[in-house]
Amino acid sequence: MFLKIYEENPNPKDIREVAEALRKGAIVIYPTDTIYGIGCDINNARAVEMIARIKNINLKKDHLSFVCYDLSQIAEYTKSLDNSTFKVMKRNLPGPFTFIVNANSNVPKLFKNNKKTVGIRVPDNNIIRELVKELGNPILSTSVHDDDEIIEYTTDPELIYEKYQHMVDIVIDGGYGDNKPSTIVDCTGGGFDILRQGKGELEF
Questions:
Q1: 120 vs 88: CA distance, rounded Å
Q2: ω before 123 within 30° of 0 (cis)?
Q3: Rounded to an integer, what distance in angstroms lies between the CA atom of residue 180 and that of residue 58?
Q4: Residue 177 maps to which CATH number?
Q5: What is the pTM of this model?
Q6: What's the CA gap between 189 and 152, in Å, rounded?
Q7: 16 in a domain, yes or no?
Q8: Whole-angstrom Cα distance, residue 133 to residue 110?
Q9: Total tally of structural domains belonging to the chain
Q10: How buried is residue 1: exposed, middle or buried, by Cβ count under 10 Å (0-12/13-18/19+)?
Q11: Which residues of the chain register pLDDT less than 50?
Q12: What is the model's pLDDT at position 144?
């Protein structure tokens, strides 16, 4: 399904429909404040395994990111954040950042692995945030990459749909995406280590 949703004012009926599909195990491609993402309900093991197959990732080894609605939802999956980490996250989120933090015991249980860290995203995009809010828990997230060696990320939702329509259940058209990924910040070592400089400039 190819579904147009407007970021300024996402239609609640459309958001409910997609959230319901996610609960049933749907794989969804959605816009963020950076590039388009592909994700599913973190609580649906079959959907998580499907994404691993589509993206050719190893759930035991590869870094996984959760899209959360806000900072309070982050607390359910992370060990308690120290004051400086919390302040920096609060200042920069919602925004184009992935913060790598220490995972609590809820994360390994979800993925049957021994993951000690998890990437956290709170994108500055109403569509995906309203979707997470309606779903009631985070969405597993990974980027939609392009096969083109020059263009790393596809920005046109219609082209994304053409490529992925037989692999995913829903592609949300939220307008053109960006072609710059999020900035990845590792907060697990007591500081703020920029692993990838993307769209976001971290403010302290």
A1: 13
A2: no
A3: 24
A4: 3.90.870.10
A5: 0.94
A6: 30
A7: yes
A8: 19
A9: 1
A10: middle
A11: none
A12: 87
